[in-house]
Amino acid sequence: MNEISTIDKSTRRRAIDKVTWIGIFINILQTVSKLVGGVMTQSQALVADGIHSLSDLITDGMVLVASKHAHAEADEDHPYGHGRYETIATVALGILLLIVAIGIGLDAVDRLMSDKPLPIPGPIALAIAAFSIISNEGMFRYAIHVARRINSTMLEANAWHSRSDALSSIVVFIGLSGTMLGLPVLDAIAAIAVAFMIAHMGWKVSHSSVRELVDTALDNETVDAIKEHINAIDDVKHLHMLRTRKMADQALVDVHIQVSSKLSVSEGHRISEAVEETLKNNFAEINDVTVHVDAENDEAIDRTEPMPVLRNELILLLKEQWKDLPVTEHIDNITLHYIKNGVQVDLFLPLSVLSKLNDAQIIQNDIRQASLQVHNIQRVDVFFH
What is the tens place of the pLDDT at every residue in 333-344? Predict the structure, then answer.
């Protein structure tokens, strides 16, 4: 359950943009230094790491574009907002990482199997790798802190991309050190290791976002907490058909609640509002709640049976049965309760129709007997007021 304070869209977008622009500056430095240094020192591992940093630059651009579109307000074409832009960008980021990993890995394997002697990089390559480790780890810690504060899966994915850069640079550093000690094969092996690390991160990032695109439910712990909060609300007898899904940093909830069939429409609506308020106040990521108010558990009803007709048609059928009962002309109100594929009827008559006390029982019996002739009528209660 996430109980962080709610952050408005403009603040969230500014935070994402700030982190991303800092990352772009660092990645430009790293891409240029690694590619130039890798070519000069003939280090395949460093060149592979430079390509990794170049992919970071591309993904940073994707993050900026996605951030702009994802934080646009809901409109007629996108009533739930534009959060899916962030999710799609995250999937694309993961796929890009996988493609980069495959390219680096194949090139390193080809170099290992070649008969050409493997070159030995110089100390400049080692210094560039060390700079990459320090800068990427610092960027990761900063970005992950901001991502978790504003609850952005896209920014968190990009942060882990920086961590993968730091780890890959550590592998490159070790490979370069071994190569300088007389084991040139370690440079190519380090490149393969970097490829595997990039591939793992790409799979992890894309897999979680694809799950979001296909509307996978929130985790079990959060769902259980949602149920507890709903069940704690007065007059909620039962909840069922609870559905949840993610959309970028937001969560959407759809739930059916069962209340007493004797409650008024307005009271049932007020209870549904209480459910919505409770969930939004206790779960910062939940921003849209749809509550269906039921008088019974929909899941326990056999929907293969024919449903009762609606009010206007049913009243006509009842009046046909009441035509020989003059007292029914004085009915003030008729309340219908659709329960278990049947209808329970409450009739309200003025006390003025009674001439003596035992008239009440006679009137009730006559109306009940006539009304129960209508199909699906389960019960009839007559009230005098």
Answer: 999 888 878 888
